[in-house]
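User: Could you check the structure of this?
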Amino acid sequence: MQIASTRFGTIEIRDDAVLEFPDGLPGLRGERWAFVAGSDDSPFFWLHSVEHPDVAVPVTSPWLFISDYEVRVSEDEARRLDLNDPSDAYIVCVVRATENIADFTINLAGPVIINAGARVGRQVLNDVGGYSVRHPLFSEVELNEVQPTRSAVPVTAAAG
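Assistant: Sure, the predicted structure tokens are below.
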């Protein structure tokens, strides 16, 4: 399918790249999303609504920036995602980007958990306490030290 993204222009989203978020994402419209890569060498993806071309949020693998990050989800959340094995989960966190890169933050309290095989996701509360919704992203590493990561779910490369 094609979407006319307000951020990337017209992009092709493969059917196998569409992720279902039955409960949506808090504060955002849409239940169907896809990862979009702005470039091959970036540690960031955009979680882009395929239903609303003006809705996209930056996400990243938290372990690229916070090496000792821990995630624990309740049994109820794991059941809702049909996660039988932790290795089936692909985890990203929402990034708050600003004009000044030093002010970027990451939501470690509410990771986005995706069952990679079923392509179903939810944003959940991390049962490991003490994490912030606005943790400084570059508190442990500099951007030039971060290597891009491969996604466990298909990523659409943006045109341009």
